[in-house]
Amino acid sequence: MTGDTHYDLEILAELAEGLLDAATAQQVREHLAACSPCGELLADLAAVREVLAATPTPAMPMGVALRIDRALAAEAGSARGGGVGLVESPDWDELMRDAPWEEAPEPVRLGVVADDGSVVRTRRRASTRRRRWAMPAVAAAAAAAVVGSVVVSSGLLTASGGEPGRGKVLQAQPAVPSETAGVSYMITDSGYNYSEHALKQPLVGYFGPYEAKKEDGGGNGKVAACVSKITSRTKLRPIAVDQSQYNGQEALVIASWKDQARNKVRVDVVDPFKCKAIRKPVLGRWK
Amino acid sequence: MPDAELLARHINGDPHAFSEIVKRHRDRMWAVALRTLGDPDEAADAVQDAFVSAYRKAHSFRGEAAVTTWLHRIVVNACLDRMRRKSVRPVADDELIEAAERDTPMPDQTAEREVSMEVSAALKLLPADQRAALVLVDMMGYSVEDAAQVLSVPSGTVKSRCARGRAKLAPILSHLRNRSNLTRVSSAKGAELRDG
Any chain B CB within 8 A of the CB of A82? Predict the structure, then answer.
């Protein structure tokens, strides 16, 4: 009891839980019958129970399920020299084929990487730790300006010659004239470990502006081929692709315009090796 | 097929039996871990550790409790271990009041998400034992007896932890009474309780 007038929350909680001895419980009940403030506290306690009960509990994300699958498969492998058939990754592309927001968009012609393997590849940041929300407006504008600079067109992803200035994004040119309907997007290489929460934030804060450089590695060719495969299925125009992680698993995070006027993007998260979705697509925001 | 039989098959070398157990229970295990730890990355680590641990020590399951209780116990212990390692400290009353007064809602969040975030933040202010009890009883809806089995403590201890946890959360979460249909209902129920 607080002073001589009211009972505190802990006593009232113990009363509600039946923890008080009979005499004390009777005393508190008599007080409650006449004391409105203590009655309010009791109502607050009841509200806590119901708020907790009504808080939604999400299902385990597929990325976590796959991670556990791999850990158990490794465990089985070390114990028996073989794997166990654990959680199969669902075919998200197939599952989401008829999703309500997947209305048929205009066809977009996309190509693949040319035989010469010319690619635009961005340089990995010194730190893989990404900034989150606090992206300066200037940087955001720069990121927006990047869109359109790396061009996949008629089967060719290429970069212009010359070294880019430090901190600037290389302005890549289509090797084939623009009348071939070039589709442009940015490839970044953040290594950032995305979570479901991150995918629902403005993505420009994650796909920042990067210094791009010309490389002859086949890695981006594979990326471009995968982006082409995914976007030919979604029929959406890619904005940017981040070579990163999702819940600890290597992933390509592909952002495509769903509705540019309303700042809506579809985010596909795919396995970079198999080019297969590792979670269902997210309807997110670019800015 | 009952869980206990699947576990027996796993012990006898059936390579698919444990995967079925995982599929059956992973969502509940995830919910318990996420609510107890309040952090998806930590929860993912804890659930992974727990399932690997259960896989390894399946032979130690004696059948006194249900498999699901046994799994919950492993998950909750994995969560409590992580919390202890991170030295989560009990919070003083003035910090609880500060938390109650903190204005955190983001303008673009739905009411449901706001509530969920506030609940998660409030739970983090509780000591680990009270948090685990409230997650099992109030959030997951287990009986006090089941929660007592999971936590390996007497029922009275679970009740006491729940009561103390609710008393600490009441000043922080009571304002949610006026922010959703749910809480209006709870308020009415509270009034009913009060008025007998």
Answer: yes
Nearest-by-CA chain A residue for B56: A75
Q: Give residue B50's pLDDT band: very low, low, confident or very high (50, 70, 90).
A: very high
Contact B112 A56 (CB under 8 A): yes
User: Minimal Cα–Cα distance from A38 to chain B, Å?
Assistant: 9
- Would you call A250 helix, strand, or coil by DSSP? strand
Q: What digits encode the pLDDT tens for the residues A220-255? A: 778 888 888 888 888 888 888 888 888 777 889 999
Task: Say whether residue A199 is in contact with chain B using an 8 A CB cutoff.
Answer: no
Stretch B58-74: mean pLDDT: 85
**Across the A/B interface, how many CB contacts are shorter than 8 Å?**
180
DSSP symbols for chain B: --HHHHHHHHHTT-TTHHHHHHHHHHHHHHHHHHHHH--HHHHHHHHHHHHHHHHHTGGG--SSS-HHHHHHHHHHHHHHHHHHHTTPPP--HHHHHHHHH-----TT--HHHHHHHHHHHHHHTS-HHHHHHHIIIIIS---HHHHHHHHTS-HHHHHHHHHHHHHHHHHHHGGGGGSSHHHHHHHHHHHHHHH-
What's the pLDDT at B131?
94
**Mean pLDDT, residues A251-260:** 88
Q: Quick one: which H or E segment has residue A269?
A: strand A264-271
Residue A127 has pLDDT above 70, yes or no: no
A200 in contact with B at a CB cutoff of 8 Å? no
Residue whose token pair is 């927001």: A101
* Any B CB within 8 A of A144 CB: no
Q: Can you tell me the distance from the alpha carbon of B99 to that of B79, in angstroms, rounded to the nearest whole number?
A: 24
| Chain B residues within 8 A of A46 when measuring between CB atoms | 186-187, 189-190, 193
The structure's pTM equals 0.52
Q: Do the chains contact at B139 and A42, CB–CB below 8 Å?
A: no
A95 has a chain B CB within 8 A of its CB: no
Check residue A274 and report its DSSP letter: T
CA B128 to chain centre: 10
Does B89 or A25 have the greater pLDDT score?
A25
* Phi (first) and psi of residue B125, to 5 degrees: -80, -10
pLDDT (tens digit per residue) in A193-215: 888 878 888 887 777 554 343 34
Task: Give the tokens for residue A126.
Answer: 């010194």
For residue B97, the distance in angstroms to the closest alpha carbon of chain A comes to: 14
Give the residue from A221, A211, A147 showing the smallest Cα distance to A185: A147
Contacts of A86 in chain B (CB under 8 A): 18-19, 22
